[in-house]
Design a protein that fits this description.
about 110 residues, mainly alpha, elongated
Length: about 110
């Protein structure tokens, strides 16, 4: 039996809040990728439904609805990202960067 985790832990230091920051950052990055993949899959499903609908008006309407929901979801994600960028540029609040502040230093300014 092989142990693949050998050498990954280099010290016996306890976990800190920086580890939680890393986990949440990775989860948010993965969620963004999964949202993009879900929108792509919805577009492919809508296209397949449209192609296979033939002359059935209910199937055509259903495929258009899938397209509409996929495009609305993609537009909502893009608008939300633009709002975050707008807030960062004009107010200095960076909502896209996750940071837990406990001690005051050059990166974390506490009031």
């Amino acid at each position: 039996m092989r142990v693949w985790a050998v050498g990954l832990v280099t010290n016996d230091a306890p976990n800190s809040l920086a580890d939680i920051e890393t986990v949440i950052k990775n989860l948010l990055g993965s969620a963004a990728s999964l949202i993009g993949l879900a929108i792509f899959v919805m577009l492919v499903v809508g296209a397949f439904q449209y192609i296979t609908s033939g002359a059935d008006q209910k199937a055509v309407e259903k495929s258009r609805q899938v397209f509409t929901f996929a495009l609305m979801g993609g537009a909502a994600i893009i608008i939300l990202w633009l709002v975050f960028v707008f807030l960062k540029e004009f107010t200095g609040i960076d909502l896209l960067k996750f940071n837990i502040c406990i001690f005051q230093d050059e990166f974390c300014k506490l009031p």
